[in-house]
Every structure is written in structure tokens, then in C-alpha cells.
Design a protein that fits this description.
Order of helices and strands of chain B: EEHHEEHEEHEEEHEHEHEE
Helix content of chain A: 25-40%
Distance between the termini of chain B: 31 Å
Number of strands of chain B: 13
Strand content of chain B: 15-25%
Shape of chain A: elongated
Distance between the termini of chain A: 36 Å
Largest interface: A-B, 26 and 29 residues
Largest sheet of chain B: 5 strands, antiparallel
Number of strands of chain A: 2
Order of helices and strands of chain A: HEHE
Radius of gyration of chain B: 23 Å
Oligomer: heterodimer
Number of helices of chain A: 2
Strand order of the largest sheet of chain B: 9-10-11-12-13
Chain lengths: 56, 326
């Protein structure tokens, strides 16, 4: 049940320190383009989980 | 942070990690992240993230139901506020990365240019402990501890109670509460609704002047505030302090190999042990000492550093210059 709930979310992430997108990790597909992720969320009705990471 | 909508993604920019749960229309259903001066990880956990995610998904579902029942107009696109709008950004190389903490630096520079900068603007994102609450790490709306005689204690919140909303905002994480506290007034009241057993309670909590103050020493953006202490090094160990007859919590750090020009000119040397300033015996770490100088002194102030050198105390005066001075 919990796994299904998580899959309902789109994921978006910014790796701000290096200004680069890391390779996809495990099974989740992270979107690195905010506008694209937002467009996808709008059409699917899914919520977004947006993560900001900075080295310091 | 180039191009990021700062109105939408409004968070504590000194953090190294921050998560938002939101809809495409910009409705935020929850936040996750946050830290204190002790550690970058003491306030977050995977269990806590899952807990906050599930609460956010429930809010998302409720919002969808409300939208389905109402007739809404077109989403209004507005021009986002971004870092590029701060004039100081022009001092950076055109394609340089702008780190999260630099949002604070750019905002401060902008306010300083307009003469609107105030030191109390540094007190951002107060901890729940500032009103007397400690939240469970894995269930961010449950109160694990209430400090005796704190503002929260006085309105009747007790350990085991569950926060419902604060200032009308739902709470499911440390970050949710910090965001609300950040936006609360510097002095005034705060309305909290919580569950005590099966009873819902709602009260106004009093915010006394200065309630937002916390230990800022971990904040990267604080390094951009003048004046710096101009001395820097490693804290002495408890054993080293004991050998010198110093209390374990007493300020004592050894000046490192890189001695700044102002410190060198004043006569401070590598391996000098800084144990105080202006005769004050402070209970601070080296990092906290940097924050102490920035918060309590101004550019142009003359301080006297109390130093131990080869077993003898020497007092060395130093002019606190700003970082841009030659």
C-alpha cells in the first residue's frame, strides 16, 4: 500500500551544488526539469515531491 | 538556484537538503527537512519522511476533492521572484552556480544597498524549542517534550500531545512547524490547535520579544556577515583544556596555520590559544565564537583577544575590519 502511494508522486530534484544531474538512482525516476515535471503533474493530476540539495 | 521561484520554494536556504510536497498549481501540501546547530541530521529520518509524505498525500487527495466540487478559474501565471532579480547577482560570473545559502547573501546585499538591513533579520527559521516544544523525529506532529515554564507549557501542551495546526497551517513535520514559526511575528501571539488525548484544544501562545533567537553558528550564510573574528582554528579537547586549568565548556581554540592579515598585523600567531574576548570568559565553541563576534560587534570595533601563548596569558587588541577592507 505504501509503495503504491509513493509511486503516485512525481519526483523532481535539483542538484544545486554541482549544477548537474546525477545518474538515476534505484527504481525511482527523478525529473530534473521543473517545468517538464510540472506539466506532467498537471496532466496526470499527481502531486510532486521536489527536493533541493546543496553541498553547503 | 538560478531560475527557482523563490516565492514558491521559500525555505531555509542554509539547509543542504529540503523537500516539498506540492501540486502542479503550486499548492504546497507539506515540507520536509531542517536541522539544528548540533547536527544536519538530528531532525530528519526516513520514517519521518514517510510519515510526512503520507500526510501530504492525504492533503493532496482532500484538495483534489475540493477542486472537483468547485468551479475554479484558470491558474494565474505570475512572474516568479528569482535570484536573478537581486542586483548583487551581477557581481557573480554569468554562468556561476548559485548555491542555496547565497539566496540569503544576495537578499542581504540587496537590503543593505537600500539601507534596510537589520541584524535581527538573521533570526530565521526558529526551532520548535524556541516556544518550548520538541517534536518526535519519526512523527513530526507529535510532541515528545515540553520545556517547563515555556510558552507552550503555559497554554497546556504536554508530551504526547499531537499538533493539528499552527497559524492555520497543518503540521506533519519539523519543517512544517519551522516554516510557520519563521513567518510568525517577532512579538505577539501564535494560535495552536492540538489533540490532548481525544480532546481538541485551541489556544493562543505568547511570543515574547527575542523568541526567534537560536544558535546560528552552523549557518553558511553567516560567513557573509561582517565583521568576521579574523581568528580561526580547532577547539581544544577536554583533556587539553583540563591541562590548562580551563572548564570543559570554556572557549578555547588554537589558531590554525593560516593567520589572517588583520590578526597577523595585530600580533596573533599560529598555535595561540584564544580563550576570551574583552576579558569575557565565554562558554562557546570556535564556530559559535565566530557567530558571537558577528552578532555582538560592528565593523570598526576594537576588541582585545585574550590569548594563552606558551603558558602565559597575553591580551592582543585587534581592529575588526570588514572582509572587503585591504
Amino acid at each position: 500500500m505504501r509503495t503504491r502511494r509513493l509511486s503516485l508522486m512525481l519526483l523532481a530534484s535539483w542538484w544545486l551544488g554541482a549544477c548537474a544531474v546525477a545518474a538515476e538512482e534505484n527504481a525511482l525516476r527523478w525529473r530534473s526539469d521543473w517545468e517538464e515535471a510540472r506539466k506532467e503533474a498537471r496532466s496526470s493530476g499527481k502531486p510532486l515531491f521536489v527536493v533541493f540539495r546543496c553541498p553547503h | 538556484m538560478r531560475g527557482v521561484d523563490l516565492d514558491l520554494f521559500d525555505f531555509d536556504y542554509d539547509l543542504t537538503w529540503m523537500g516539498f510536497f506540492l501540486d502542479a498549481n503550486g499548492t504546497i501540501h507539506g515540507r520536509y527537512g531542517g536541522r539544528d546547530a548540533e547536527s544536519a541530521e538530528s531532525r530528519v529520518s526516513l520514517k519521518g519522511l514517510r510519515y510526512a509524505l503520507e500526510a501530504a498525500l492525504e492533503r493532496h487527495r482532500q484538495a483534489r476533492r475540493r477542486r472537483a466540487q468547485s468551479v475554479e478559474g484558470e491558474e494565474k501565471e505570475k512572474q516568479p521572484r528569482t535570484v536573478e532579480q537581486y542586483p548583487a547577482v551581477r557581481r557573480l560570473p554569468e554562468r556561476a552556480c548559485i548555491h542555496c545559502h547565497q539566496v540569503y547573501d544576495l537578499r542581504r546585499a540587496s537590503l543593505q544597498a537600500k539601507g534596510k538591513w537589520r541584524l535581527d533579520q538573521l533570526w530565521v527559521y526558529p526551532l520548535p524549542e524556541n516556544i518550548g516544544l520538541t517534536l518526535e523525529r519519526d512523527r513530526g506532529d507529535f510532541v515528545s517534550r515540553v520545556a517547563a515554564d515555556s510558552a507552550a507549557y503555559r497554554i497546556g501542551i504536554r508530551a504526547g500531545d499531537r499538533l493539528r495546526d499552527v497559524r492555520g497551517e497543518s503540521i506533519a513535520s519539523f519543517a512544517d512547524l519551522q516554516y510557520v514559526l519563521h513567518r510568525a511575528p517577532a512579538k505577539g501571539t501564535l494560535t495552536l490547535t492540538w489533540l490532548h488525548g481525544d480532546k481538541t484544544r485551541k489556544e493562543e501562545l505568547t511570543l515574547a520579544e527575542g523568541w526567534k533567537k537560536t544558535d546560528l553558528s552552523w549557518r553558511w550564510s553567516l560567513r557573509g556577515v561582517d565583521p568576521p573574528p579574523w581568528v580561526r582554528g580547532d577547539d581544544l579537547t577536554d583533556t587539553e583544556k583540563k591541562m590548562l586549568g580551563l572548564e570543559p565548556r570554556r572557549l578555547a581554540f588554537r589558531q590554525g596555520p593560516f593567520v589572517s592579515e588583520p590578526a597577523r598585523q595585530a600580533g596573533i600567531r599560529q598555535n595561540d590559544i584564544v580563550v576570551g574576548v574583552d576579558g569575557k570568559k565565554l562558554e562557546l565553541s570556535e564556530r559559535q565564537f565566530g557567530a558571537y563576534i558577528r552578532l555582538n560587534y560592528r565593523v570598526g570595533d576594537r576588541v582585545t583577544y585574550n590569548i594563552l601563548r606558551e603558558g602565559k596569558q597575553v591580551d592582543i587588541p585587534l581592529l575588526l575590519r570588514d572582509r572587503s577592507a585591504p
